[in-house]
Amino acid sequence: MRWRLFTGWVTAGSASNVTTVMRSRSPVGKVRTSGSSRRHIGAHRLVLLLLVGGQASAETEAPGTANRLLSFVPFIGNNPCTEDRYHQLGASLPLTWTSDGGEGHPWRVMYGFCVAQKGRLSLTQDWVVSYLDVEPHGDSPGGDGVSFGTDFSLRWRQKQGSSFTPYYELGSGVQYAAGTPFPAHGSRWMFTINAGAGLLFPLKPDLQLQTAIRYLHISNAGIFPENAGYDAFHAVVAVRWGT
Fold it and tell me: How far, in Å, CA of 105 to CA of 134, rounded?
């Protein structure tokens, strides 16, 4: 099977060979090797592969689940949103007791829309502005700050129900802290990973209420000397309009 990754074309004869090649072609580059950094970097690599990966074409075997997943991104230009043509405005509020509180919290406002759709699977984008409540750390004073960024997510929704529709999502993004870095001993450039589940409630034919519980991770993926991280669950509330 031939796999096209965002690092180039490689040929693999078995799953073990694919794993070896993927590990040797890291997009992150040389990073610190502490246990915390490896966890942050490994998670970011996984999500980047899912969201940015390439196209798998089977030469000697029938297409499988992995092929269909990896072929999702190249179809964007030929598969515009149909059933999920919408815009949404919402907020992501930290459930403060789900983190140790040592880093502070981001309070996020998001404007999002559908980018592409394949059946009930869609690729969504959110533009994000965050108020940062940053706790001091060592020589870093902390304080108030703001960040700007964008997230991309894969979202799978179940068949639409008359009362509500469940959905599941996995995504990643990037953000820049214009004031105080977040966390305080981290960096201004940060990457995000989010995963969650939620419900869509129909209010009118072209209006829906969205609620979700979302896990949010923030770190710089080890591209700066200090790779501080934030992990917590957030409650998401949003209004969607459009078909």
Answer: 7
pLDDT at residue number 27: 43
Dihedrals phi, psi of 234, to nearest 5 degrees: -125, 150
**Phi and psi angles of residue 42, each rounded to the nearest 5 degrees, phi first:** -60, -40
- The two tokens of residue 196 are 């969650």
**Range list of H helices, 2-134:** 15-24, 35-52, 65-70
Residues 205-215 have pLDDT tens digits of 889 999 999 99
Cα separation, 121 vs 47, whole angstroms: 16
Kindly state the DSSP code that residue 81 receives in the 8-state scheme. -
Residue tagged 């459009």 (tokens): 242
Q: Token pair 């078995």 is at which residue?
A: 14
Q: DSSP per residue over 179-231, as a string?
A: SS-SSTTS-SEEEEEEEEEEEEEEEETTEEEEEEEEEEEEE-TTSSS----EE
Nearest to 110 by CA among 132, 130, 81: 130
Bridge partner list, 94: 234
Could you give all domains of the chain from N- to C-terminal order, each with its CATH number? 2-76 (no CATH), 79-241 (2.40.160.20)
For the entire predicted model, the pTM comes to: 0.68
* The residue type at 238: A
